[in-house]
Amino acid sequence: QVQLVESRGGLVQPGGSLRLSCAASGSIFSIAAMGWYRQAPGKQRELVAGIISGGNTNYADSVKGRFTISRDNAKNTVYLQMNSLKPEDTAVYYCNALHMGHMYWGQGTQVTVSS
């Protein structure tokens, strides 16, 4: 069993920055990959960024160069540093983890980018 707890989101001005964190707890043996998804009203949930235990990362084209995903394996925590935020980044952000062949999800946190 894995539980994922996300940090609070917030309201950010366009061009601003925000860092999200997601901490995994429970009967973890190894988490192969962690990532961030987001879902805006009327849109499908999409993968924003992912990272495997070895450090390899992947980003959606829409956030490449602006967002950075990182992972602290000792703390079982993944971070998403979001810079140069745009209104279209507004969404509920969900943490995700792959553990022993099972997918786990965080509770979701609202990020709003608006002036």
In words, what does this structure look like?
- The protein has 115 residues and is mainly β.
- It has strands spanning 2-6, 10-12, 18-26, 31-39, 46-52, 57-59, 67-72, 77-82, 91-99, 102-105, 109-113.
- Strands 2, 4, 5, 6, 9, 10 and 11 form a 7-stranded mixed β-sheet that branches. Strands 1-3-8-7 form a 4-stranded antiparallel β-sheet, with no helix packed on it.
- The termini are far apart.
- The mean pLDDT is 93.
Summarize the structure.
It contains no helices and eleven strands. It is mainly beta. The strands form two sheets. Strands 2, 4, 5, 6, 9, 10 and 11 form a seven-stranded mixed β-sheet that branches.
Summarize the topology:
Layout: E1 2-6, E2 10-12, E3 18-26, E4 31-39, E5 46-52, E6 57-59, E7 67-72, E8 77-82, E9 91-99, E10 102-105, E11 109-113
* Residue fraction in strands: over 45%
Mean pLDDT: 93
Q: Termini distance? A: 40 Å
- How much helicity do the residues have? under 10%
Number of strands: 11
CA-based gyration radius: 13 Å
Q: Which consecutive residue ranges, at least 5 long each, have pLDDT under 50?
A: none
Q: What's the story with the biggest beta sheet?
A: 7 strands, mixed
Count of helical stretches: 0
State the secondary-structure class.
Answer: mainly beta
Shape: globular
**What's the helix-strand series?**
EEEEEEEEEEE
List keywords for this structure.
115 residues, mainly beta, seven-stranded mixed beta sheet, four-stranded antiparallel beta sheet, 11 strands, globular
